[in-house]
Amino acid sequence: MNASDAQVRARLTALVPALRAFHSALMDFAKSEHEFLHGPVKGPFELYSLVMNHPGFQWLRPLSGLMATLDEVLDAKDTSLTRQNVEDVKAALGLLFADTDTRFAEFRAGYVRARGDLRVRETEARWREVLGALEA
Predict the structure, then answer these.
(1) How many Cα atoms are found within 13 Å in the side-chain-facing hemisphere of 95?
(2) Domain of life here (predicted)?
(3) How far is CA 101 from each of CA 64, 87, 93, 106, rounded to the nearest angstrom?
(4) Fewest beta carbons less than 10 Å away: which of 2, 22, 115, 131?
């Protein structure tokens, strides 16, 4: 691993907890929406089942998938990381929030509902700050 690879890896690794916190805030929002409509979720197994199967949670899948891919890239120790990897992550996140890409319209609709939540706004500000620092 060269110095550039180590820098890119460290910067992308710093983004992971910020994205996880954002995802967690969105998940909590989706759970609150579900509970408002259907009553309390009765434990972690029911929540897991809802996340995997209920349409009210499906909008989170694009972000979940992006995070899983980022984890896979970072876990591949034999793969050299470059600035292109940073650009790829930035582009993928940009597509999630871009009105022009219809593939992620359901994600954006859920996000629009959730962004009134203080924790969602705070965690979004944090991952965007970390993403901005990737340029440094």
Answers:
(1) 13
(2) Bacteria
(3) 18, 18, 12, 11
(4) 2
State whether the Cα torsion 53-55-56-61 is positive or negative: positive
Question: Cα 13–59–92 angle (5° rounding)?
Answer: 40
| CA-based nearest residue to 10, from 1, 94, 69, 90 | 1
Q: Which domain holds residue 116?
A: 3-133
Please give the Cα distance from 29 to 57 (Å, whole number).
10
**What is the model's pTM?**
0.91
How many domains would you assign to the chain?
1
61-98 per-position pLDDT tens digit: 999 999 999 999 999 877 788 888 889 999 999 999 99
Q: What is the pLDDT of residue 104?
A: 95
